Amino acid sequence: MRGSAWTSPLDRVFDVDIKRLSADDDTATRCPLHRFRHQLVYAYNPRVMSLVHVPSNRSVLLVGSFASWKYTQPVAERLRDVLRFRGDVLQSASAFLSVNVPPGWTGLSFVRVGVHVRRGDFLRRRSIRKGFATATPRYLRRALGYFVRRFARVQFVVASNDVPWCRRLVEAWTWWDRNTTVNVSFSEGHSAGTDLAILAACNHTVITAGTFSWWAAWFVDGITTYYAGFPRPGSSLSNRSHLDEYYPPNWIGING
To answer: Which pTM does this prediction carry?
Structure first.
C-alpha cells in the first residue's frame, strides 16, 4: 500500500522502537546500500566487524544466516532492550503459565524448564539430505532427566510444531506417572511468537534443533542443554558450521 511504513513479521512479536520509512519515501531509494554476504550457517564471521567502518549515510543489508553467540554477546544488553515482547504476546504467555501451575504446587517452589522440539519441516527429505536433524527420544529423555536429577520440583513446558509426537513420547515414559515432583505441560494453539514468549519466561531450557530453539534459550539465559546431533555430523550443513561458535561454551551438549 502506497505510503505505508515498512514492517516485518517480527513486529507481530516484538515492540521494536526503530524509525520506519514508508514505501514511497524518496529516502528509501536514495540511501546507498552496503551488502554484507555470509556463506556459513551456524558460525561466526569475524569480517562482520568491518561494518563499523561503513559510512553512516549507508544502510547495511546482511545476507545469510548470522547464528552465533559471538554476535550477540557483545551487544546482549542492548539487544534485550530492543527485543521487547509486545504486550499482547506477553499477556497470552502469562495467562498460559498461570493456568498451568501443576495441581498442588501453588505456593511451592519449583523451576520451569522450557522444551522446544523442532520437527515438521526438518523431516522433509531435502532438509535431511542437507544435514538438518531432529532430536531423538533418547536425547529428550536424557535432557529432561538432567533437570529432574538437579532440581527437587520441575515443570517442563513443551512447545513444538509436532505436539502430538511429543505427547506420545512423554506418555510412553511411565516413570513420569510415579513422580509427583515432575510435571509436563504442552503449549497448544498459540502463535509462534507466544510460544517463544512462553519459553522465554521459563528458568531453563532444553533445545533440539534450529534457531527458534537457540533464541528461546538465549532469552532465558539459564541452564541450557542442546542436541549434540544437530547438524548431522559429516553433512553439508555441518561442514558450513562451526558449532563452538554457534552454541555458547556454557551450554551442555547431550548425545542421543
So the answer is: 0.90
